């Protein structure tokens, strides 16, 4: 799935996840985590990666097997240093209204990996 970097296009991703969940009978526990983590990843690609520039694309790919489902989300942005993110649970960050997306993704998914550049993320959920 390829779409322009506009917040309204998150609806397309939500619909995709709903369709996948129905087709493959994804358990409701996994569905909730999957929906939140993937939407957060797409939101990050639109807002932080592509800086809401609607001429830039976000690409969402998925692969499913009996054991897992994985989503790969990429943007046209310059990337970022995913290794040096502030911890949103520390006292100096706890009241900030941003900076929790990747933390949330890592806690919801079974695995989260970034490419070296930081403009692509793979989010994996175990189905067993």
Automatic annotation (TrEMBL):
UniProt cross-references to Gene3D superfamilies, sorted A to Z:
Histidine kinase-like ATPase, C-terminal domain (3.30.565.10)
Q: Which Pfam families match?
A: HATPase_c_2
For molecular function, the Gene Ontology terms on record are: ATP binding; protein serine/threonine kinase activity
Which SUPFAM superfamilies would you find in this protein's record?
Answer: ATPase domain of HSP90 chaperone/DNA topoisomerase II/histidine kinase (SSF55874)
Q: Does the keyword Transferase apply?
A: yes
Q: By what name is this protein known? A: ATP-binding protein
Alphabetized, the UniProt keywords read: ATP-binding, Kinase, Nucleotide-binding, Serine/threonine-protein kinase, Transferase
Q: Which CDD domains match?
A: HATPase_RsbW-like
Coiled-coil ranges from the UniProt annotation: none
Which InterPro entries does the UniProt record give? Anti-sigma-factor_SerPK, HATPase_C_sf, HATPase_dom
Q: Which residue ranges does the record assign to the Histidine kinase/HSP90-like ATPase domain?
A: 5-124
- Kindly indicate whether the keyword Disulfide bond belongs to this entry: no
